[in-house]
Amino acid sequence: MRSILRHMYLFSIYISRYLEFVIAGFLFSMVILSLAQVLMRYCFKSPFTWSEELVRYLFVWSIFLGGSLAMAKNLHLKMGINIAAVLPDIVCRTINSIISMCIFSVLIILLWKGFEVVELTKDRYSTALQIPMWYVWSSVPINGAIMLYFFLLSKLAIYFPDIAVVGRSSMDRNGRKLTT
Q1: Angle value at C-alpha 71, between 65 and 75, nearest 5 degrees
Q2: How far is CA 103 from CA 72, 76, 107, 109, in A?
Q3: How far apart are CA 175 and CA 97, in angstroms?
Q4: Which domain holds residue 17?
Q5: Which of 169, 165, 119 is nearest to 140 (CA)?
Q6: How many C-alpha atoms does 70 have within 13 Å on its Cβ side?
Q7: 3-state SS track over 32-44
Q8: Count helices and strands in the chain by DSSP H and E runs
Q9: Quick one: pLDDT band at residue 180, thresholds 50, 70, 90?
């Protein structure tokens, strides 16, 4: 079991690094395409017909990839209140369990409804690029699955802290931040 978990954590490192490079590439592409669009529109009076659409689709993918990366690094927004210092241990565990169940539920719904959106858009094509729209909307279920993977790994890190990778932060059973 520990060997499998260790490999899952090592795989998560590779996924995180890959996501960083892809997001950086998408952001760089969006900047270059936007600058080229402005240059073509105002200097040459002949704008590209497809660049705004491509930038929009890259932006959609960047948002969901960024959400996956934030889940991997445990960087999503949280309340800045240390409930473990104020409330009893059992209440902290209960609150953290409820929060975890809510996150898990949202990720399952994101995955499920994302597949429905992909299915609905499989016969549609974008206006300027003429690419299938399911390419764009597949970002929802793909990144929902990636976020679910990272979420489950973060929950496993609570019970197997010696397996967690170096530098990865997680929470202990009381909601306190652990760094392993």
Answers
A1: 110
A2: 14, 11, 6, 10
A3: 10
A4: 2-179
A5: 119
A6: 11
A7: HHHHHHHHHHHCC
A8: 6, 2
A9: very low
Residue whose pair of structure tokens reads 């369990």 in the numeric block = 97
Total number of domains constituting the chain:
1
pLDDT for residue 114: 97
Question: 3-state DSSP: the chain helix, strand, coil percent, rounded to 5?
Answer: 70, 5, 25
Tokens 């402005």 sit on residue: 38
Q: Minimal CA–CA distance to 146: which of 17, 3, 12, 25?
A: 12
| Predicted structure pTM score | 0.85
Rounded CA gap, 165 and 9, in Å? Answer: 6
Give the tokens for residue 107: 């990720």
The total number of residues written for the chain in this structure: 180
Residue 167: pLDDT over 60: no
Burial (Cβ within 10 Å: 0-12, 13-18, ≥19) of residue 143: buried
